[in-house]
Amino acid sequence: YEELDIWGKLNVWADDNAKAKMDELLDPNHPLTRTTRIGNEAITILWQHPRELNQVKIGSKLKSTLTKLIHGDIMRQYWIESRKKFSFADESRIDWKSLNRAANGADTARQMWLSKWLSECCGVGHMNKKRGWTEYDNCPRCGQANETVEHVMKCPQIK
Which of 52, 80, 96, 125 is in the most buried spot, having the most CB atoms within 10 Å? Predict the structure, then answer.
């Protein structure tokens, strides 16, 4: 090991870390459990949320499914508590699967527009001023200061 150059030592370090991670993931008590063969399926990955008893079978779209399972609680908490877009009670009444299907059915440009609009990061006065694109944040229709997405929807000048 000592005779290796820095790249060789880094390679050994990376191999050691990869083996440690593999051992961690193959631990039967780890939330991402061992890959198993069920029926005719070549692989099946089961995810168990740390705070829930049930396991979720992941058969496709591994990256996006794991992202939702791992970060879903954090994202919901952000939109409920930080952005105050809806309450915990409202969340249970939203049909998330239908919204997801509708969004996925849109073309890429529409998906991008929708995500910017819903996150309030689109070209309204408030964001344009915040980004330094304009010196004012007034609504161009009615002149109200601090034009936001909500104001665009409720502006008295829109007929």
Answer: 125
* Amino acid in the structure at residue 99: L
Pair 131, 117: CB distance under 8 Å: no
φ, ψ dihedrals at 105, nearest 5°: -80, -15
* Pair 109, 89: CB distance under 8 Å: no
Output the DSSP codes for 71-128: HHHHHHHIIIIIS-SS-HHHHHHS-HHHHHHHHHHS-HHHHHHHHHHHTT-SSSHHHH
- CB-count burial class (<10 Å; 0-12, 13-18, 19+) for 139: buried
Please report where in the chains the tokens 């969340």 appear, as a residue: 91
What is the reported pTM? 0.46
Sign of CA dihedral 107, 110, 116, 120: negative
Q: Render the burial of 99-109: b for 16+ CB within 10 Å, e for the rest.
A: eeeeeeeeeee
First-last CA distance in the chain: 75
Express each pLDDT in 25-44 by its tens digit. Answer: 666 666 555 455 555 555 66
